[in-house]
From TrEMBL:
Keyword set, alphabetical order: Amino-acid biosynthesis, Aromatic amino acid biosynthesis, Oxidoreductase
Name of this chain's protein: Shikimate dehydrogenase
Record-listed E.C. numbers: 1.1.1.25
Any Pfam family matching the protein: Shikimate_dh_N
Enzyme class: oxidoreductase
All residue ranges annotated as the Shikimate dehydrogenase substrate binding N-terminal domain in the record: 11-93
Organism annotation: Flavobacterium hydrocarbonoxydans
């Protein structure tokens, strides 16, 4: 039986007072089964403070990782899971029994599990808005679902289009639009990605990784034109529970 007493976990990120993870795990640990477990935010201004954080907290057993450190933390880790290495981003760190740090990605798992029930036969291609660490997990999940995708960013680069290229034809060809950017989060909840929303239809899925507000402006505009909408709340729950299994295996 796993000894679950007196263990510390936390979230690594910057400006993370809004954190889903802290609230979720704190609530989870209220159950007497998890007595002795604790979860806290480790808000650091730059990734170089990570080494000091680990050194000063030798009783840590696991960390979640959020913006902007999902890619930056990798050089500080001893090992990556096969999927984290392929994805190129880490959102879960396990402190192993021999003191090593191993990185995993559970974002792709949470996204895949939450998107799958919405998929229909005509959902063949996706636009991924944003190119940060979260978008890499999304892309990996789409690969596993055999859904083709294209990245969208403010500047066109190799294999990335910019927002100005998106038009009615784009919406005909891409039936899933996924917001992996922070546009629409508090305090700028009126903001939304620069899209021609009038081309959304009932055949489209609009998925926003943001969960607060529950219905972002991106989702509201897509919904107004008939799209099926989904926020990131279920994804976060699925990835959190996957992280908990990793920390305990």
């Amino acid at each position: 039986m796993i000894d679950i007493l007196r263990r510390r976990f936390g979230l690594l990120g910057r400006n993370i007072s809004y954190s889903f993870s802290k609230g979720y795990f704190t609530e989870k640990f209220k159950d007497e089964v998890f007595e002795g477990n604790s979860y806290e935010n480790f808000d650091i201004s730059e990734i170089n403070y990570f080494t000091e954080l680990v050194k000063n907290n030798p009783d840590l057993k696991g960390l979640n990782v959020t913006i902007p450190y999902k890619e930056q933390v990798i050089p500080f880790l001893d090992k990556l899971s096969k999927k984290a290495a392929l994805i190129g981003a880490v959102n879960t760190i396990k402190f192993t029994k021999n003191g090593k740090l191993k990185g995993y990605n559970t974002d792709y798992y949470g996204f895949k599990k939450s998107l799958k029930p919405l998929l229909k036969e005509h959902h063949k291609k996706a636009l991924i808005l944003g190119t940060g660490g979260a978008s890499k997990g999304v892309a990996f999940a789409l690969d596993e679902l055999d859904i083709l995708y294209t990245f969208v960013s403010r500047e066109a680069k190799e294999n990335i289009i910019d927002y100005d290229l998106i038009n009615a034809t784009t919406f005909d060809n891409f039936q899933i639009i996924i917001n992996c950017t922070p546009v629409g989060t508090s305090p700028n909840i009126e903001a939304s990605p620069n899209l021609p929303y009038e081309f959304f239809t009932e055949k489209h899925i609009a998925y926003d990784l943001i969960y607060n507000p529950e219905e972002t402006t991106f989702l509201k505009k897509a919904k107004a034109n008939g799209a099926v909408i989904k926020n990131g709340y279920d994804m976060l729950i699925f990835q959190a529970e996957k992280a908990w299994k990793i920390w305990n295996k």
